[in-house]
Design goal:
By secondary structure, this protein is mainly beta. Helix content is 5%, strand content 52%. It has one domain: Sandwich (Jelly Rolls), CATH 2.60.120. It contains one helix and 14 strands. Strands 3, 5, 8, 11, 12 and 14 form a six-stranded antiparallel β-sheet that branches. Strands 7-9-4-13-6-10 form a six-stranded antiparallel β-sheet, with no helix packed on it. It has a two-stranded antiparallel ribbon with strand order 1-2. It is elongated and about 70 Å long. The mean pLDDT is 83.
């Protein structure tokens, strides 16, 4: 049965006068990437990482908050410890990194400053440890995403990934993020 509402629009209802609807359920990063073209990934690689080195630094430069969805780390060390920190300062000694838009047909660019890679990211000060995770014999490749779209950076907020402990060698880190809409 179809009824016209106050607005004059037609809606399908059942015999109990309940509105019949259809929904699409998808994760927010997928929706933001596909629909808005505003989901990104930043990646840094260090062929000779040292313990205590910050390998990837990301700062939001936009008035629109960004949400960190996932962090990916890789290492060849058997006993690595990784940390995510809220930080201040500018990662000024490392190479600039341009995050890749996860919607390849979108021309949008991330309004962030990102640095990382060989030699660490420079002068930053930790302002709070967010979390720690391991990467060892079992966990060479690690995905950290247990905050379920809750880790949000406002304008000028920054985070950095630290290779906290390990014997060094090759390591890489990636941060997947999107506009908070």
């Amino acid at each position: 049965m179809y009824n016209k509402g106050i607005s004059g629009n037609i809606a399908d209802v059942n015999e109990f006068h309940q509105l019949l609807t259809r929904t699409v359920n998808e994760q927010r990063p997928a929706y933001i990437s596909r629909t808005l073209g505003k989901a990104f990934i930043a990646h840094a690689d260090d062929a000779d990482v040292a313990a205590g080195e910050f390998i990837l630094w990301l700062r939001n430069d936009s008035d629109i908050p960004i949400t960190i969805n996932s962090i990916f780390t890789f290492n060849v060390d058997a006993n690595a410890i990784w940390k995510l920190h809220k930080v201040t300062g500018i990662g000024d000694t490392a190479a600039a990194i341009i995050p890749v838009n996860l919607n390849f047909s979108s021309g949008n660019v991330a309004d962030v400053t990102c640095r990382g890679g060989a030699g660490g990211v420079g002068t930053i000060v930790t302002a709070g440890e967010v979390t720690t995770w391991g990467g060892g014999v079992t966990y060479f490749n690690t995905v950290v995403n247990w905050w379920l779209d809750a880790l949000t950076l406002g304008k000028n907020d920054a985070v950095a990934i630290e290779f906290d402990a390990g014997t060094g060698s090759r390591a890489s880190a990636s941060i997947m993020f999107h506009d908070s809409v």
